Amino acid sequence: MQKMDTVVYDAMHVGIEAAQAAGKILCDMLETATVREKAPKDLVTDADIAAQQCIESRILAAFPCHQFLGEECLQPNVIQAMTSNVEWLWVVDPLDGTVNYAHRMPNFAVSIALMHRGQAVLGIVLDPMAGELYVAILGQGATVNGRKLQSSTCTKLDSALIAASFPPQVQKDSIEIAQFVDILVHSQSVRRLGSAALNLCYVAQGRLDAYWAGFLKVWDVAAGALIATESGAILSRHDGKPHDPWGGELVVAGSEQLHRELRCRLQAVEQDAC
Ligand code: IPD
Ligand code: CA
Ligand code: CA
Predict the structure, then answer these.
(1) 50-99: per-residue pLDDT in tens?
(2) Ligand 1 atom 14: the closest Cα is on which residue?
(3) Which tens digit of pLDDT belongs to each residue from 159-190?
(4) Which chain residues have CB less than 5 Å from ligand 3, an ion?
(5) pLDDT at residue 274 above 60?
């Protein structure tokens, strides 16, 4: 246990420095980055690549025996291998919110998580434009710029501000759009902010009362999910089963009551569509 705590604290310092260095690269390249499509509406820029290289080199220099999974260096067989029981695995999204970034909208983040045998033990999310650094260690709470985070106490859907994420190729007649319309009508309002990692941090901070998504990747959520749960938020799959960071979907809310109400509505729409 002593050894594990030491690794996690050392990792926190290295991870924060890597996030800050990557955040500086993103800010420096904001006006000049070149953008291309990996798939329709799924963007990558040369800033994503530069930020990831910066993070990877710092982390592997400090922890040469650890594994590294970054969004921009992937082959499908590599991802598969990573899902197995690796002892120490860093999961990194060098730029979450690429569409915002490509349009020079300031809502984007660097997301860095450390997993121990499949469980996130450290989460770091940096919003470099706002200068907000979110950090959580498993079992030790979450902070923003050193201040303790506490999720919202809102218990009612009709007074809740909620965010949603959609996949890049969302279809007109899809369940996601039906869910969006349903929650828009029944909540105070719904936002689509463009960064899953920041949505999770905003739930941790109480800026958002809840957030749901259906198609996320492990690098979108691994850090933010820990930050949200360490701030007291409730997180699960849409069916209420435990959240799996490799599983794609999540529903998270500051309070248990709001989580239940939101989850029930999302599920009711899913079942209606069956
Ligand atoms: C995306 C963002 C977005 C979510 C997408 C993700 P990227 O990540 O988190 O909010 O809706 O599903 O792919 O591509 O900007 O790293
Ligand atoms: Ca992402
Ligand atoms: Ca990304």
Answers:
(1) 999 999 999 999 999 999 999 997 665 566 566 657 999 999 999 999 99
(2) 98
(3) 999 999 998 888 999 999 999 999 999 999 99
(4) 71, 93, 95
(5) no
Return the ligand 1 atom nearest residue 98 CA. 15
As a dihedral over the C-alpha atoms of residue 255, residue 165, residue 11, residue 75, rounded to 10 degrees, the angle is 140
CA torsion angle 259 245 13 16 (round to 10): -80
Q: Whose CA is nearest to atom 16 of ligand 1?
A: 96
Domain tally, the chain: 2
- For residue 55, how many C-alpha atoms fall within 13 Å in the half-sphere facing its CB? 38
The answer to whether residues 248 and 136 belong to one domain is: no
Q: How far is the CA of 222 from the centre of ligand 1 (A)?
A: 13
Mind listing the pLDDT tens digit for each residue in 107-120?
A: 999 999 999 999 99
User: Of 148, 168, 193, which residue sits at a domain end?
Assistant: 148
